[in-house]
Protein: methylmalonate-semialdehyde dehydrogenase (CoA acylating)
Amino acid sequence: MQNVKLLIDGEFRSSASQHMIDVTNPASGDVIARVPDALAEETEQAVAAAKNAFNSWKNVPVTERARVMMRYQAILKREQERIAKVLASETGKVFDDAMGDVWRGIEVVEQAMNAPSMMMGETVENVARGIDTYSVVQPLGVCLGITPFNFPAMIPLWMFPLAVVCGNTFVLKPSEQDPQTPVLLAELFMEAGAPAGVLNVVHGGRERVDQLLNHPDIAAVSFVGSVPVGKHVYQTATANMKRAQCFAGAKNHTVVMPDANKQHVINNLVGASVGAAGQRCMAISVAVFVGDAQQWIDELASAIAEVKPGVWDDKEAGFGPLISNAAKERVLGLIQSGKEEGATCLVDGSECTVEGYEQGHWIGPTVFSDVTTTMRIYQEEIFGPVLCCLCVDSLDEALAIVNDNPYGNGTSIFTASGAAARKYQSEVSVGQVGINVPIPVPLPFFSFTGWKNSFFGDLHAYGKQAVRFYTETKTITSRWPEDSIPAGPNLTINLR
Ligand code: NAD
Structure:
């Protein structure tokens, strides 16, 4: 049985903690590793190592920092399959999806390789006679990342490569449910030439997180996870005067217009709703059918019913199990509530099992129609392979539903009408919009821009916004008088 290591000051070490948390294979229920709830003093050592490393790392030329990312990108590509297999063993994701989890993280490392141009400041010559003003961006210090279970490769890679390439050092607190993947990412980062202390990894739950959020040497906090924890992290970090960006839960709607291509809609919504067992923050969990598009619900439900859950290396499997038994019980409770509250269960995955893996946390594809906005299955984030279908008469009604929803992570519209698409993208109160694209996760040269209860903060993940989040701007106004300096004191605020 492997005990997952901490990374402190360049050394992978076993925790002295007596409190170990089981890491399970969600497909079998077997315990595959144990992760420590790190001791307070170990967490303190991780922050101290990061603080110490910052003194030299911030002065390493940005080109050299970018070269660490170039080597890291090559190593991650070389090791993509190995990482994906570790990831699949602790998340249950099917192999292609696990490869995708790693790949979307590699793309962020590629973005981090562009640090020299992303960190360029601005200059205006001659803002007054003989005076120039220019700005530079400088790193903040020690940054903290707290990550969820559902993308154990991609989401840590949203954070530390960009923070570190900007000259910061980092403490990562990954999900205790699948910590082996982020620790492997950290091992490979050391292999790429990251100096000791630049990246540190500590494990644990609320107590460790609170210790870090209250630590005076942490300058900025990036969090991804559920809404209640996201609010707690944002409130605690900002109450401690830290910069914070917290990405939280979601309820993503797609709107299906009657002029859309039916087959395109069905092909796209199958994967967008039940892919990764619905455990994606950008999963489509609500489909709003407008007018005659309502007639496609049964056909969509039949296509979704065809998708079979299975173990990671089963090539026929469309998705894997839920992460834990607790997650499974929560989703089963929501499916039951949908039935009791009067929704029609067209496809019911609550009795699902996979032969040979009866202890796995399986839920099959599930589709509800006749859903109303007052039902729990509509109001709560299900985070399971469950699609809720609603029907309306017009695009305006669909927009009203989406805009009334408290979440604003992602949405999409399927239509053949440019006018409908333009109205939707303009009027919808959601931060990431797909037009005939179901899950509009932007590539890392843009930013991941959830809104409303799906995000607390102002500067988003990756892209230019991440560089602004992980740096402070300094503006310099300078005069180098060649001949005579202006006579007498200047008692005004004007430059002369
Ligand atoms: P979670 O909130 O339970 O855990 C996230 C992190 O917070 C973990 O590292 C965990 O150890 C820590 N944590 C848990 N409880 C805590 C507490 N009480 N105090 C302090 N820290 C605590 O989330 P999860 O179940 O791992 O992930 C699923 C959630 O993440 C879903 O709601 C999903 O929508 C969301 N998510 C959002 C995005 C996004 O970009 N908006 C992306 C991925 C996942």
About this structure: The longest strand covers residues 131-139.
